[in-house]
Amino acid sequence: MAECVPDAAGFIDLDVPEYAYMFGFLQADGHLSRGTGQKGRLTVEVSARDVGLLDRSRN
């Protein structure tokens, strides 16, 4: 299987305000799992009032 090397510059541009905001949001409230069978799983813990932020980021 070929190794996949992500192109960070093409993936996310932190000069775009929406991307920069979401990057900071995930840094503050996100968690990457390292356990067996969960490597790469990103979880985010937010209050009910912030769920709309996650909904808007899906688009």
Any overview of this molecule?
With 59 residues, this protein is an alpha+beta fold. 41% of the residues lie in helices and 10% in strands. The chain has three helices and two strands. Strands 1-2 form a two-stranded antiparallel ribbon. The longest helix has 13 residues, at 17-29. The mean pLDDT is 79.
User: How many domains would you count in the coordinates?
Assistant: 1
Mean pLDDT: 79
Report how far apart the termini are: 31 Å
| Unreliable segments of 5+ consecutive residues | none
- Radius of gyration based on Cα positions: 14 Å
Oligomerization status of the protein chains:
single chain
% residues in beta strands: 5-15%
The SSE string, one letter per element, is HHEEH
The helix count comes to: 3
Q: What's the number of extended β-strand segments?
A: 2
Q: The biggest beta sheet, please?
A: 2 strands, antiparallel
Structural class: alpha+beta
Share of residues in helices: 40-55%
- Biggest sheet, strands in spatial order? 1-2
Could you say which overall geometry the principal axes of the C-alpha atoms support?
flat
Keywords:
flat; alpha+beta; 41% helix; 59 residues; two-stranded antiparallel ribbon; single chain
What is the compact description of this entry?
It is built from three helices and two strands, in the order H-H-E-E-H. It has 59 residues and is α+β, with helices and mostly antiparallel strands.
Topology, element by element:
Elements lengths: L7 H4 L5 H13 E3 L9 E3 L6 H7 L2
Antiparallel strand pairs: 1-2
